[in-house]
Amino acid sequence: MTALDTDLIRRLPKAVLHDHLDGGLRPATLVELAAEIGHALPATDPAELAAWYYDAANSGDLVRYIATFEHTIAVMGTREGLLRVAEEYVLDLAADGVVYGEVRYAPELLVHRGLTLAEVVGTVQEGLAAGMAKAAAAGTPVRVGTLLCAMRMTDRSREVAGLAVAHRDAGVVGFDIAGAEDGFPPADHLAAFEYLRRENMPFTIHAGEAHGLASIHQAVQVCGALRIGHGVRLTEDIVDGKLGRLAGWIRDRRIALEVCPTSNLQTGAADSIAGHPITLLRDLGFRVTLNTDNRLVSATTMTREMELLVTEAGWTAEDLREVTVNALKSAFLPFDERNAIIRDVALPGYKTVLGAGR
Fold first, then answer.
1. What positions does the entry give for Zn(2+) binding (predicted)?
2. What secondary structure, in 3-state letters, does 287-335 show?
3. Which CATH architecture has domain 6-352?
4. What integer is the mean pLDDT of 68-78?
5. Which residues make up each annotated binding site for Zn(2+)?
6. So which residues are the catalytic ones?
7. Where are the chain's structural domains?
């Protein structure tokens, strides 16, 4: 059996569906951009700042976790800041072995320095394109699609949904709502989801992280989500391995769960990696995907998330391949393009890396 050490896991092809642009900045970049605009940070040494982020996010509370984003959002309000953050985002994915990624962010949070919503989207796409070109030139190609988020605490979801549809041929592949979950149900944004369905635009919804089954039910049965962001509290509808009606519906219809283990520990949605719901959900046949959520805030990468599951939850190479294929099957891409990445990139890549490890 191939030993799944850090180097081998890093070389495995990966796919990430749930990753926030404003939660994944390089610490050094955050320090430099903050200095350029005169924004005060909790620390100006990159290593100390990274440690501050991780410690501040380990509160066990989603609202306090989200509060750490004020600094990253502050430096992403300029064209120069957005271009740099987006380009580096892609290069960091490529270095982590990611072959397909979907990155999400809320345009409405990034207009505080004068950019319009459309300018924010266009600038991010420009930065992502530059990163993809550099990654390809370096021999580590990665494809990145964008999800536009509306904040569930505000009333701009229909506007942002329109923005997503307007940019669907320019790299935007889907839509989401983000922010504090408890007290801000998905159905509050039903008009946006109905519009997206009419426009044949896919969307996912954060649900089942800080709130339970009611949030997941609304996301799926009322709003029509094709994927669920996190969804780990779906286990509340599973007793002794027997699935309730909602859990059975989600499993049987292959609605993907975008699970983020380290982030879930930080927000109190899970207690440990060894006992994380992702393993139970995988064992019960749900379409589980593995994700980072916020690489800066959680001090993580896809390599680290995989390694934690291997070392602490007993996952195998086959388990890692399964969640990678699951993510590609559920990507917001046309069917033939998803299949091509699975057939021509992911599966051959696994075979090459694991064969080399024997």
1. 18, 20, 206, 293
2. CEEECCECCCCCCCCHHHHHHHHHHHHCCCHHHHHHHHHHHHHCCCCCH
3. Alpha-Beta Barrel (3.20)
4. 95
5. 18, 20, 206, 293
6. 209
7. 6-352
